[in-house]
């Protein structure tokens, strides 16, 4: 039997996600919070809240987990969270004398909250559609969720980045089944507000290591005997 998209779940998920985004980004709801990192994290909480709600109400079993298809959660944590935190903080300390561990950690947590919704729920629902339609529709909803409606060339470029991200992070989700892994790839776009030689080298190294790890993971899965 061909699987169908649960459109009611999608609509309710998206309403929760975008209402939360509006409240946290376009109102004074978080104005009393003094911790900038907590405020940043909460702006990405809508997709997670929406996904958890529809999982419970519609009795949908999540396809992704923190551990994913790894035998232990230690490996994805070290590879996808500890590694970028140590790398970015080490480079920052050596070049600027600063250790921005809170900033880096908050970016990863923010990415995790978003990915619980985008890849953990919506990407899985849209698998019932043709791949091109799935990527474009998810990217459009993801773009509109950011509530940037000035439609400048920068925003059109950002939309293109989201299309690429929807495709690429979807591959990560399929290969690892891990929310930790997908949140790390998501965070590549958020680690540095501006790209220069140093930040570009860091992002390039992270991407290289993670892509190699994914290739190895995919080959290991293909070589594993069927249970």
Question: Can you walk me through this structure?
Answer:
The protein has 227 residues and is mostly helical. The protein has one domain. 71% of the residues lie in helices and 0% in strands. The protein is built from nine helices and no strands. The chain has helices spanning 7-25, 36-42, 45-57, 74-96, 101-125, 131-145, 153-176, 179-187, 197-223. Helix 4 (74-96) packs parallel to helix 8 (179-187). The longest helix has 27 residues, at 197-223. The radius of gyration is 18 Å and the shape is globular.
Task: Please bin the fraction of helical residues.
Answer: over 70%
Number of strands: 0
Series of H and E elements: HHHHHHHHH
Q: Mean of residue pLDDT?
A: 94
> In one word, what is the shape?
globular
Count of helix runs: 9
Please indicate the count of domains.
1
Low-confidence stretches: none
Estimate the strand proportion: under 5%
Q: How would a textbook summarize the main sheet?
A: none
Cα end-to-end separation: 23 Å
Radius of gyration: 18 Å
The class by helix and strand makeup works out as mainly alpha
């Amino acid at each position: 039997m061909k699987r169908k998209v649960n459109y009611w779940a999608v609509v309710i998920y998206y309403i929760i996600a975008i209402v939360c985004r509006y409240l946290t980004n376009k109102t004074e709801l978080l104005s009393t919070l003094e911790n900038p990192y907590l405020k940043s994290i909460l702006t990405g909480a809508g997709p997670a809240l929406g996904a958890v709600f529809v999982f419970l109400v519609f009795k949908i079993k999540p396809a992704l987990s923190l551990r994913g298809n790894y035998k232990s959660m230690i490996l994805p944590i070290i590879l996808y969270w500890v590694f970028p935190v140590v790398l970015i903080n080490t480079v920052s300390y050596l070049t600027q004398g600063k250790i921005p561990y809170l900033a880096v950690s908050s970016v990863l947590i923010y990415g995790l909250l978003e990915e619980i919704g985008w890849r953990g729920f919506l990407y899985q629902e849209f698998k019932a559609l043709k791949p091109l339609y799935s990527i474009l529709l998810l990217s459009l909803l993801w773009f509109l969720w950011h509530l940037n409606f000035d439609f400048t060339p920068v925003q059109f470029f950002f939309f293109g980045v989201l299309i690429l991200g929807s495709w690429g992070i979807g591959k990560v989700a399929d290969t690892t089944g891990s929310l930790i892994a997908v949140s790390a790839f998501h965070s590549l776009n958020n680690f540095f507000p501006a790209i220069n030689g140093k930040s570009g080298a860091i992002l390039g190294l992270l991407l290289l290591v993670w892509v190699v790890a994914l290739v190895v993971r995919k080959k290991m899965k293909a070589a594993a005997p069927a249970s």
